[in-house]
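Pipeline run #58 for the internal structure catalog. This entry was flagged by the ingest filter as a single-chain record with no existing model, so it goes straight to prediction. Upstream metadata was stripped on purpose; only the residue string is passed forward. Reviewer on rotation: M.T. Logging verbosity set to normal.
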Amino acid sequence: MKRRGLLDETLVVWHSEFGRMPLSQKGVGRDHNPGALTVWMAGAGIKGGQSIGATDEFGWKAAEQIVTAHDFHATILYLLEVDHKRLTYFYNGRNMRLTDVAGELIPQITG
């Protein structure tokens, strides 16, 4: 994609369902960890080679530069040139947003 110039206009996102717990689950593997997970992004003007946030010393939960799901969604929409505060859909008698009433852009990604 880079060689063909497609990364200038394409957003690539790799995201797992959950992170993994830092300890074994009765010797049969590690359980899901919704408190710390990894996302990999490229293209769409994102500056490469960044690492944003960190877990505690055990890998149990996010501890530094915590990014919420709403922040992540707002940032993806921004990179797709959609204003997350204006994108609404009508549900149950009121306008709703994909990012609910939250969501701040991740400054390291959006500049």
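catalog note: The longest strand covers residues 11-15.
catalog note: The radius of gyration is 17 Å.
status: ready for reviewer M.T.
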